[in-house]
Amino acid sequence: MKEERIVISQEGLDKLKEELQHLRGPKRKEIAKRIKEARALGDISENSEYDDAKNEQAFIEGRIRELEQMLKNAEVINTENIDTGKVSLGTTVKVKDLEFDEEEEFKIVGPTEVDPDENRISNVSPIGKGLIGHKVGDTVEIEVPVGTVKFEILSIEK
Question: What is the CATH number of the domain that holds 65?
Fold first, then answer.
């Protein structure tokens, strides 16, 4: 299996490390305690508390492995040196949707940092890919699952 590099901000890297530390420490201990308590109830063959705790343990261990792999392949982008002359990973771009005459703002981030509620979109999403490389004043047509969107790029910031 080819290992893919994961482009991420320092903030995103710190969040992944924090999650990993939490899962390896307090979360593992909590689940071990739940398993021990469920075993103390007796027969584990029909013990739903035991089954639930073991399932959660398997999920947590899988997530730990996933985080370790992501951290191993992480490439931190330096947001200090971002060129705001064109849309790129790490920039915040303000666009005008030309069909609906509405302004929107997107932060272009790596796939592990996506948060639609915060308008953080992936550089590999259709809109992210479509905006990257364009400059203020450019009009961009982007194919999305529901059709085509047309944006005018209004500003690009760090």
Answer: 1.10.287.180
